[in-house]
Amino acid sequence: MDALDLIGMGIAALFAAMFGSMLGLGGGVFLVPLLTLFFEIDPKVAVGASAVCVVTNSVVGSSVHMRSGFTNIRLAMLLQTTTALGA
Question: Whose CB among 17, 21, 25, 28 lies 3.0–4.6 Å from 50's, allowing a Cys bridge?
């Protein structure tokens, strides 16, 4: 993996995070296929790297929504609990 690949992956992650945030999807929907198809990353490694990126994107997005007053904490806690059970 050379520097050009790393730059390309960084750009792919940036766009995956932007589109994921705009559409309310996890960025992994975009990032995993990009990493596996264009950068020939092993799918298991791509999923693991994507999970870390999605967590980071979610934390940043959540903090922005909370500061803006657009978060219902009670609803978020219910959804967080049931989502964790489903995972």
Answer: 28
